[in-house]
Amino acid sequence: MGPGDIDAAETANIEPADLPKNSEFVLARGQNRFNTFCSPCHYFNGESEKSAVSQKGWAGIPNLTRPETAALSNARIFHIISAGQNLMPSYADKIDVIDRWAIIRYLRTLQGVEGIASNPTAAPAAQN
After folding, report:
1. CB 42 within 8 A of CB 64
2. CA distances from 116 to 32, 34, 59, 105 (A)
3. What are 26-69's pLDDT values in tens digits?
4. CB atoms closer than 10 angstroms to residue 49
5. How far apart are CA 42 and CA 34, in angstroms?
6. Got the DSSP string for 61-117?
């Protein structure tokens, strides 16, 4: 993935405006999907070291609560879930769009941050 792909992810992955950030239902759905799809590698708390995959000797699974991951935009995390990254495969065909956003909402509660919607690239300056 090159820098252009990351920029495209930031501007193309727009959060649904009607998906509440602190809705009990959205967070519960996000937790359910996180526990189902993400916990085998990242464990139920996002910290990875106790996950089933880590316990089998796989190294390098990122702790999702670390500051570097918490600093990623929601759009970037959506892109990672959708397209995959490093050893992580794409989940686009397994987790529908709204559920991916619900996972991000729930992940932000594990991280203790609200997260930022995206880091859109600056619009080009008008030419005179």
Report:
1. yes
2. 22, 19, 29, 11
3. 999 999 999 999 999 999 999 999 999 998 988 889 999 999 99
4. 11
5. 9
6. PPPTTSHHHHTS-HHHHHHHHHH-BTTBPP-TTTS-HHHHHHHHHHHHHHHT----S
